[in-house]
């Protein structure tokens, strides 16, 4: 597990490199630039050359570009296990802002609307949350990783192309609670299933309250069995040795014996190891 703005993974032996048996078939979570740790582990940073190497890395689900929190990454055959390992729910902590809407539904976008919110009470907000718990229909944001003709909607919009909103789709909210109300800000804890957008939730809450709202901050605190508090490896510890220890520490969450060298799942029979990160 890791948290911060740089990422980690290794392969070839070196003074401080992870053993290949530990790295090649694993699951952990990391963030943006892999180059420093690739170099430390003796892994090619050139994309074309790296294609010829055995090491393969894939993530278990995107995070919003402005969000932080858990991002689980599979290594080697661990990439094939991600769907089974992460089949459970996700948890988020979101800070919403009443009275202001943006085109991205979060603080990174352009303001598109402003409305008064001074008459909204804590009780009003708590009552509205009940309407967004359970199995509901939700329209995904235009700025999202959803694709049209193989390209992300967010990329098409940034190029100036016209994009239509995707139709509402069924999503599940296991729990939704108000943690703090200090207008215009409010803090929510959300546990949901796959395909759910917290940005859409906050926007819809604003509309239900006859105002508008957008996400100010968003943190994913849980993805599958991995939690930010228990498994996160923070950026100042993103070294090959620390990642190796983190991999070993997280093995209790995976099927099989508690060894970071071999793990098997009932579904695939693939070997793997795991941890998580802050993106």
UniProtKB/TrEMBL annotation:
<dbReference type="InterPro" id="IPR020103">
    <property type="entry name" value="PsdUridine_synth_cat_dom_sf"/>
</dbReference>
<feature type="region of interest" description="Disordered">
    <location>
        <begin position="258"/>
        <end position="279"/>
    </location>
</feature>
<feature type="domain" description="tRNA pseudouridylate synthase B C-terminal">
    <location>
        <begin position="199"/>
        <end position="231"/>
    </location>
</feature>
<dbReference type="GO" id="GO:0006397">
    <property type="term" value="P:mRNA processing"/>
</dbReference>
<dbReference type="InterPro" id="IPR032819">
    <property type="entry name" value="TruB_C"/>
</dbReference>
<dbReference type="GO" id="GO:0005634">
    <property type="term" value="C:nucleus"/>
</dbReference>
<keyword id="KW-0413">Isomerase</keyword>
<protein>
    <recommendedName>
        <fullName>Pseudouridylate synthase TRUB1</fullName>
        <ecNumber>5.4.99.25</ecNumber>
    </recommendedName>
</protein>
<keyword id="KW-0539">Nucleus</keyword>
<dbReference type="Pfam" id="PF16198">
    <property type="entry name" value="TruB_C_2"/>
</dbReference>
<keyword id="KW-0819">tRNA processing</keyword>
<keyword id="KW-0507">mRNA processing</keyword>
<feature type="domain" description="Pseudouridine synthase II N-terminal">
    <location>
        <begin position="49"/>
        <end position="198"/>
    </location>
</feature>
<feature type="compositionally biased region" description="Basic and acidic residues">
    <location>
        <begin position="258"/>
        <end position="267"/>
    </location>
</feature>
<dbReference type="GO" id="GO:0006400">
    <property type="term" value="P:tRNA modification"/>
</dbReference>
<dbReference type="InterPro" id="IPR002501">
    <property type="entry name" value="PsdUridine_synth_N"/>
</dbReference>
<dbReference type="InterPro" id="IPR014780">
    <property type="entry name" value="tRNA_psdUridine_synth_TruB"/>
</dbReference>
<keyword id="KW-0007">Acetylation</keyword>
<comment type="similarity">
    <text>Belongs to the pseudouridine synthase TruB family.</text>
</comment>
<dbReference type="GO" id="GO:0005829">
    <property type="term" value="C:cytosol"/>
</dbReference>
<keyword id="KW-0963">Cytoplasm</keyword>
<dbReference type="GO" id="GO:0160148">
    <property type="term" value="F:tRNA pseudouridine(55) synthase activity"/>
</dbReference>
<dbReference type="GO" id="GO:0003723">
    <property type="term" value="F:RNA binding"/>
</dbReference>
<comment type="function">
    <text>Pseudouridine synthase that catalyzes pseudouridylation of mRNAs and tRNAs. Mediates pseudouridylation of mRNAs with the consensus sequence 5'-GUUCNANNC-3', harboring a stem-loop structure. Constitutes the major pseudouridine synthase acting on mRNAs. Also catalyzes pseudouridylation of some tRNAs, including synthesis of pseudouridine(55) from uracil-55, in the psi GC loop of a subset of tRNAs. Promotes the processing of pri-let-7 microRNAs (pri-miRNAs) independently of its RNA pseudouridylate synthase activity.</text>
</comment>
<dbReference type="GO" id="GO:1990481">
    <property type="term" value="P:mRNA pseudouridine synthesis"/>
</dbReference>
<dbReference type="Pfam" id="PF01509">
    <property type="entry name" value="TruB_N"/>
</dbReference>
């Amino acid at each position: 597990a890791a948290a911060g703005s740089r990422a980690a993974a290794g392969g070839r032996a070196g003074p401080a490199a992870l053993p290949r048996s530990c790295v090649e078939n694993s699951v952990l979570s990391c963030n943006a630039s892999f180059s420093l740790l690739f170099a430390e582990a003796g892994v090619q940073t050139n994309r074309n050359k790296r294609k010829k190497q055995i090491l393969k890395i894939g993530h278990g689900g995107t995070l919003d570009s402005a969000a932080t929190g858990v991002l689980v990454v599979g290594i080697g055959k661990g990439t094939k296990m991600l769907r089974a390992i992460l089949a459970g729910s996700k948890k988020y902590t979101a800070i919403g802002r009443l009275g202001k809407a943006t085109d991205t539904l979060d603080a990174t976008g352009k303001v598109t609307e402003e409305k008064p919110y001074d008459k909204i009470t804590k009780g009003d907000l708590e009552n509205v949350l009940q309407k967004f718990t359970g199995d509901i229909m939700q329209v995904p944001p235009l700025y999202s990783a959803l694709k049209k003709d193989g390209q992300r909607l967010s990329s098409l919009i940034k190029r100036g192309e016209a994009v239509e909103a995707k139709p509402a789709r069924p999503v599940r909210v296991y729990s939704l609670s108000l943690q703090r109300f200090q207008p215009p800000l409010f803090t929510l804890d959300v546990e949901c299933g796959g395909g759910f957008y917290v940005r859409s939730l906050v926007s819809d809450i604003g509309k239900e309250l006859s105002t508008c709202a957008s996400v100010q901050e968003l943190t994913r605190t849980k993805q599958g069995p991995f939690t930010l508090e228990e498994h996160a490896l923070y950026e100042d510890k993103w070294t090959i040795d620390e990642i190796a220890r983190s991999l070993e520490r997280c093995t209790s969450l995976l099927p099989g014996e508690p060894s970071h060298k071999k793990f098997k799942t009932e579904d695939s029979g693939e070997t793997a190891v795991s941890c998580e990160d802050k993106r």
